[in-house]
Amino acid sequence: MSEAELVLVGGNVLTMTTDQPRASALAVSGGRITAVGSDEEVQRWSGPGTQLVQLAGRTVLPGFVEAHGHPTLEMVIAGPDVLDIRPVTCATAEEVLSWLRAAVAAADPGCWLGAFGWDPLLQEGLPAISRALLDELSPDHPLSVMHNSGHSAWGNTLAVQRAGITRDTPDPVGSRFERDEAGEPTGAAFEAPATALVLGGAIRPPDADNFATLMRHEHNRLARAGITTVADLGFRRDARERAQDFCRSAQAKVRMRVYEVSVPEKRTDVVPGQDRDDPMFQQVGIKIWADGSPWVGNIATSFPYLDTPQTRAMGLPPGHCGGTNYTRQQLTEVVGAYFPPGWQIACHVHGDEAVEMVLDVFEEALAAHPERADARLRLEHCGAMTPEQYRRAARLGVTCSLFVDHLYYWGDVLVDGLFGARAESWTCAGAALRAGVPISFHNDSPVTPPEPLRNIQVAVTRASRSGRVIGPEHRVTVEQALRAETIDAAWQLFADHEVGSLAVGKRADLVVLDADPHAVPPGEIGDIPVHSTYLDGRRTFPG
Known about the structure:
By secondary structure, the protein is of the alpha/beta class. Helix content is 29%, strand content 22%. The protein has 17 helices and 24 strands. Strand 9, helix 3 (93-106) and strand 10 (113-118) form a beta-alpha-beta unit. The longest helix is centred in the middle third of the chain and has 17 residues, at 352-368.
């Protein structure tokens, strides 16, 4: 028996395995777990050179897996060049407008200003956003503002001119520019890449000089939340080389699994599996957006939005049901281009009508390619997905990643302002598990902060921030919620052989909590402090 490099004893180790679900200690060498068991068993691995950590009763879990984030976007949105006006930052309409006016007043001449996080549903009292409003706020500077969902953006007159958007500019596939009755662009855009054009130079991609700095801040943010693996569900190919270099450096604190954005050419320069041996950075799939955001009104539902002050403020007419970003044929062509070579497909979808279309296309692709029986095709967010659709997904072997944090932040407005009784089954994790669908939870950062413990709390309680319980029949157990943030999320990313549970031979990715999520009141799980985080047995937080 060789000496271990790291031994943790005196704790409550939740392994997320079935053969040994609990232990009190574990040992690590060469970045991998070499022993899991009782203090007495594991301390045999200690020697003069071993780092011994006394857990003092704290709880150890596999490092959390964020199955659907946007780290290369969040590092820019949360960076110094973009005004952060998200509800988690600016709680009121007054703050939002004050911050925008202050940024405009302080801007250098000609500077194109960008802000992210406009959300009238949570920042009550915001005026209807328009080109005219932005012209009033910023008459002498281009100003672009993105909705908190990331699915719509607006520009003032100078921004639209700087972006070169005219009445003759075609709508990019899968997105659109809003136009007035005369056909002129209003300054509003929906879905990427139209939103990217409206944002233009306001939210700039990082360059060689600041990429590592921004990525380091992002990795620190994730490590503080106990996250050791993150999936980037909007990865752009121009970031590939820099992201790889950073993840392979000593500065990296989180493993990245990326899904490249589908493009009109319907191709990628990457070959499936070419990163398979890289423990820190792998491209595992392709990302598609079938519909949009419930907060914008562009999700495809079989039922209408309510007619309320909130929906009227969103500009939605009575009976509005939204729509999809693609026709059925267009989506078939996109999946048909990326699926046969071997890519996992992850499709953003909220409305039940859009879910049905995606399941139709997935079923056809699977039937045409029986060799892809373990494709793990993914549905993302799944707000209005029905129990019957989960049963269909289970029959097809389709897996789902749920944005349960919607219930915490937007739960009250989902019921009262948008969908009424239909919202009771929003992101119904319980129905998914009863159907036999493997699920993960996520935060879709930067829409909500990376907070896996809050996700677990919300899935268990189905309680909004006000304490309102929404669809209690769709609650899950603490154990099921923990799996959705660890081993089941790792399985979605084809990473469960390496991470997601604490077993001999696996990567020593750990999070140490000050309390056991099973042992605190369910409504307090999200407030459990993260004591420390380890990647390959190296402490990444604090540090």
